[in-house]
């Protein structure tokens, strides 16, 4: 079974972002002869990060009792594909999307989602695609996601059929890579972040809790993200 986690940063129930995400999911199912399980997160109340830094100390988030976000994290960890979709507001992700990212930001220091594949889906009327796509690509890279694909739609410029064709192509490619057990491809950003963080955690100034995670998972002795995947197989 292939499990898919989807976050939709639009609170509009009839948004173009929602339409494209659902179309992508349908194409995944059509292009696959393997069983798919999906968890679609949208319109769920997510509390704003209060900056207590407990998550960076490997402690439970104090907000989880309020919004049960620990269950969301569990779903992400149990998934094979992570999809983040958002419309673009003022050349940025939506506030709802940023709140979601803030609540998993500590994972960017420990590549918590390594071994999973990522898909970005963005929509805009006129501008901001490059800025937002680059930002989400960075976030996914720092989380450890591989084979990151980007699907964008500009309402006042792009033909919807072209975007749907792109969705068909990427969904088919994604499923084939999984079925054929293709080697994961990490971005240059991911590898650079790994080298930078590894050097930091080998120093005396490292965050003790995060360094402990790197040591316990064996990442501290690995030469690259590829090596981590190899060691875990």
UniProtKB/TrEMBL annotation:
Query: What residue stretches are annotated with the NADPH-dependent FMN reductase-like domain?
Result: 2-149
Entry GO MF terms: oxidoreductase activity
Listed transmembrane segments: none
Record Pfam families: FMN_red
Which keywords, in A-to-Z order, does the entry hold? Answer: Flavoprotein, FMN
- Superkingdom of this protein's organism: Bacteria
Protein name in the entry = Flavodoxin family protein
Query: Which PANTHER family would you find in this protein's record?
Result: NAD(P)H-DEPENDENT FMN-CONTAINING OXIDOREDUCTASE YWQN-RELATED (PTHR43278:SF4)
Organism name: Faecalibacillus intestinalis
